[in-house]
């Protein structure tokens, strides 16, 4: 390990505690999770309570009309599990029935079955200790009574005003007097009623009955072939996390259809590069991510339909071969599709050693732009990530899950969690996680400093802050990045575009580091959102 980079004081104090902790992008969500922990709940209980509040207070980024991916460590069994809460296209859907053979970016045709609510119940049944009635109470209260709009949420609403105005229900909820301003109170009584129904009837109250009927009616009126059977038949899929040995422990990620394996691919390629100076390391990391993204784009899809072969890609031999392809002095040309995603990430650790990394999302800001009539539920647009190339593993088809950007992660030592972490940011998620791990583990910064450090993201071209940036070859870099690193990247052929110092477009990540020797937790929250890490 070489000397750590110069780092300013962290943007806020590191959250420290001896018992339990939650980190999320909004204080109300973190507080809801910590309250559950204080009342004796475990990490899964806390994660659900926090996620439920986020579906109210961060409506552009997540919602019960979206999907969720989990990594859960259960201290009772000592096992770590992955849970896939993503939904499928309607069974009657097909590429041939898409107008013009293309998947739009927004609208009803992009809506797949929302998987988040069922995943709450399924993961709770396997590892939780409370019921949905208890855990969703705070989210229902906040939706009914209202919350103070933050600058981040106001900016999302302002940026997406045209999309919201195209839907009468969205306009009624989010644009009553124009886009909400920071400090305005935003209420969603329809969503409160939907959450109340789930509290009483469990996830079936979402996937069957009145709510399901309204979702189906809203979508079918706009050309989506969703049926009540499509909703009622949805279930969460349990899986085994992917892993690679790393720095004396095991680095874990959710398997495809999640893209989280891109982090494993990149960190595996970079295993012997921790000693590199910062300009070189950043170049190597970008090039490693390009190769990981190329593998993802070629092979990742619904694992029930098209196995990705990712296990073969994660062997030591294959990772060394991929690393050997990287030119230390020259950037590789464009390899990825353009990305537009948005999401939330949260982490929870309890006093018994349970841990959760949970990513939940509508995909793009406000998802499809459609609110199911009378429910307050914004429906996601995950179907926009399907390919329309016949024969491609991720090609659009009926009853199929798309490739997903959601990338929960965890680091274990001696099979117990040591770092619980995740990030929003579309295609940027594994890129952000690679940089976070580098700063935290290989450069020795604390968890908050590691989150604060300036970032780059490759291939995220749709950024309102920089409308002049186009094409997925752009490397977006925060302006705080050192001149030495930026110069080194440009000299090697990277097309660098600078953003402001702390940009929401660069993702908001969260992390909890567990120090078992001293019996303490250290939590970090991303300054690019309204984030808060808080412990008991």
TrEMBL record:
Q: What Pfam families does this protein map onto? A: G_glu_transpept
The record's section on InterPro entries has: GGT-like_enzyme, GGT_lsub, GGT_ssub_C, Ntn_hydrolases_N
Per its UniProt entry, which superkingdom is the organism in?
Answer: Bacteria
Q: What is this protein called?
A: Gamma-glutamyltransferase YwrD
The species this protein was found in: Vulcanimicrobium alpinum
What gene makes this protein? ywrD
């Amino acid at each position: 390990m070489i000397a750590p980079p110069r780092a300013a004081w962290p943007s806020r104090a590191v959250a420290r505690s001896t018992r339990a902790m939650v980190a999320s992008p909004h204080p109300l969500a973190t507080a809801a999770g910590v309250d559950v922990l204080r009342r004796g709940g475990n990490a899964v209980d806390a994660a659900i309570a926090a996620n439920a509040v986020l579906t109210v207070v961060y409506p552009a980024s997540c919602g019960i009309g979206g999907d969720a991916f989990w990594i859960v460590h259960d201290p009772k069994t000592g096992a770590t599990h992955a849970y896939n809460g993503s939904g499928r296209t309607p069974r009657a859907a097909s590429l041939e029935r898409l107008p013009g053979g293309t998947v739009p970016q927004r609208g009803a045709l992009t809506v797949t079955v929302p998987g988040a609510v069922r995943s709450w119940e399924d993961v709770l049944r396997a590892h939780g200790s409370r019921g949905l009635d208890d855990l969703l109470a705070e989210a229902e209260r906040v939706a009914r009574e209202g919350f103070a709009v933050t600058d981040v949420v106001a900016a999302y609403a302002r940026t997406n005003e045209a999309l919201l105005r195209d839907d009468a229900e969205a306009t009624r909820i989010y644009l009553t007097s124009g886009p909400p301003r920071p400090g305005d109170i935003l209420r969603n009584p329809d969503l409160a009623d939907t959450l109340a129904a789930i509290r009483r009837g469990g996830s079936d109250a979402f996937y069957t009955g009145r709510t399901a009927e309204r979702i189906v009616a809203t979508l079918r009126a706009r050309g989506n072939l969703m049926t009540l059977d499509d909703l009622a038949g949805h279930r969460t899929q349990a899986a085994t996390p992917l892993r690679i040995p790393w720095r004396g422990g095991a680095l874990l990620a959710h398997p495809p259809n999640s893209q989280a394996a891109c982090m494993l691919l990149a960190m595996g390629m970079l295993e012997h590069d921790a000693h590199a100076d910062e300009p070189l390391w950043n170049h190597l990391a970008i090039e490693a991510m390009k190769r990981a993204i190329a593998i993802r784009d070629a092979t990742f899809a619904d694992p029930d339909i098209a196995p990705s072969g990712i296990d073969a890609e994660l062997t030591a031999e294959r990772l060394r071969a991929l690393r050997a392809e990287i030119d230390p002095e020259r950037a590789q040309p464009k390899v990825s599709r353009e990305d537009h995603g948005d999401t939330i990430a949260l982490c929870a650790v309890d006093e018994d050693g349970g841990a959760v990394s949970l990513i939940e999302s509508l995909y793009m800001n406000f998802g499809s732009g459609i609110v199911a009539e009378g429910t307050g539920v914004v429906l996601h647009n995950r179907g926009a990530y399907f390919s329309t190339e016949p024969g491609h593993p991720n090609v659009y088809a009926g009853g199929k899950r798309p490739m997903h950007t959601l990338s929960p992660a965890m680091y274990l030592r001696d099979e117990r969690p040591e770092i619980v972490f995740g990030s929003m940011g579309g295609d940027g998620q594994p890129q952000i996680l690679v940089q976070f791990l580098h700063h935290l583990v290989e450069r020795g910064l604390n968890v908050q400093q590691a989150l604060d450090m300036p970032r780059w993201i490759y291939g995220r071209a749709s950024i309102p802050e920089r409308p002049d940036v186009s094409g997925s070859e752009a490397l977006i870099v925060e302006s705080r990045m050192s001149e030495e690193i930026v110069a080194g990247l440009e000299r090697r052929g990277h097309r660098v575009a600078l953003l402001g110092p702390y940009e929401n477009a660069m993702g908001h990540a969260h992390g909890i580091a567990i120090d078992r020797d001293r019996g303490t937790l250290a939590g970090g929250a991303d300054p690019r959102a309204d984030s808060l890490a808080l412990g008991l």
